[in-house]
Amino acid sequence: MSRARNRSFVTAEALRMALDNVRAHKLRSFLTVVGVVIGVSVVIVISSVLTGMRKNIVAQIEEYGTNNIFAFHLSTGPRLGPRDRAEYRRKPLTPEDGQAIVAQASLVDDVANQAFMWIPGDNSIHFRADKFRSPQLMGVSANYPDVVTVGLREGRFFTREDDQGRRNVIVIGSSIAEALFLNRTAVGALVEVAGQPFRIVGVLEKKKSAGPMSEDDDNNQALIPYRTARKISPQTSEWLLLIIKAKSGQLKGALDQVEEVLRRRRKLKANVDSNFDLSTADRVISQFDDITAGVGLVAIAISSVGLMVGGIGVMNIMLVSVTERTQEIGVRKALGARRGDIVRQFLFEAVTLTSLGGLLGLLLASAVSWILGTLIPDLPTEIPMWAVVAGLAVSVGVGLAFGVWPAKRAAALDPVEALRWE
After folding, report:
1. So what's the pLDDT on residue 284?
2. What's the number of domains the chain is made of?
3. Nearest CA-CA partner of 136 in 193, 251, 218, 80
């Protein structure tokens, strides 16, 4: 028991001496660990942004439905770099494809159409003298709320009769309603879209997960009947997304059936790749994770340079410290200090330096993440605990790795020669 107490006392004394040495040379110590500060902060900041973005993507996907399949003629989901231009030669999907899926895929409950509208010129929504610029105009089928999680703040969604009759009715997002109508009721009002009058029949609930995951804010959506959209903008049919609702617990089987139906309708041979894209919540998240893995490797490479520079700085300053404190080492050895005690003291000093650098890096990363979240509200940031633990652990590891040589050099000094050193 006395041996354990003595060991803990020696450890505490070594830690106290290490902190005293840092306090005695504040500026030198800070400049020594700048590389560690930068290395740790880079990893934590990038991790916080990627973690926040992933959380946002998951929230958006949950709003669209985790049991849904998204079929589009172009590749979808997060990706690095531009899309292959050969994809633009693919034939778009059609409403008839959706009808065939419902009829032939037994594990599918329903299919909704969602078409992205392209209106040349001014695509703003006008209400009297006011104008809402760049709404996210989409033509959707009447069963859209049955397939996608859509909540209405007021009014109703348009009906199949509205769609089949190509009526000029519209459901607007909360941001549009707040911008054009303030505290007034939007339902029943006439607005102008693409030079044509539209009657507002409903207002969507505000979506909390709207953010930079898509080009447009989900709360800026303006939904009109699919056939009305094709009447106003015939090019709408070229950008049709089929949202397919699988039966509960049958997503994987439904995915296989949908692929088989579409390949058969597009007359694809067995040895030919599919000329369309099927995506699910799991696939989108997996694609994002693949991208973040690549970004993470870049971040690790960048931080490794900083940590290497910081480690070399720590080793250099510890070697200088050994030279400056040669007589002190000689005195301690003359008084009975063992080689292990000297090694432990200098290792503690190196680890203390780099640990403080890690803490400063964590504080800097927290500040940068907060500033990013304040200046760019749509950029989510959330520092994960694993990044904090990893950053601090790496900073301790750098101190141990680069403090070994100076510690051994100090321990190897001859006490007689050390005492005579001037």
Report:
1. 74
2. 2
3. 218
Note whether 238 and 112 are same-domain residues: yes
> Does a structural domain hold residue 186?
yes
DSSP state of 91: P
- Same domain? 36 vs 114: no
Residue 251 CA, distance from chain mean position = 25
**10-residue mean pLDDT series, the chain (422 residues):** 48 63 69 83 86 77 76 76 76 93 94 86 85 90 89 92 94 92 89 91 78 55 93 84 90 92 92 88 75 78 81 82 72 72 79 86 90 79 86 87 82 64 56
Q: Does 99 lie in the same domain as 19? A: no
Q: Are residues 218 and 356 in the same domain?
A: no
Q: Do residues 201 and 169 touch, judged by C-beta distance below 8 A?
A: yes
Give the residues across from 71 on adjacent strands.
242, 278
Read off the pTM: 0.65
The tens digit of pLDDT for each residue in 313-360 reads: 888 888 877 777 677 767 777 766 677 777 777 788 888 888 888 899
CA-CA distance, 115 to 250, in Å (whole number)? 26
Distance CA 90, CA 153 (A): 38
Nearest CA among 324, 364, 348 for reference residue 407: 348
- The range of the structural domain enclosing residue 240 comes to 91-275
- AA identity, residue 292: T
On whether both 240 and 300 belong to a single domain, the answer is no
Q: If you write DSSP's letter for every residue of 32-69 in order, what string do you get? A: HTHHHHHHHHHHHHHHHHHHHHHHHHHHHHHHH-TTEE
Same domain, 312 and 406: yes
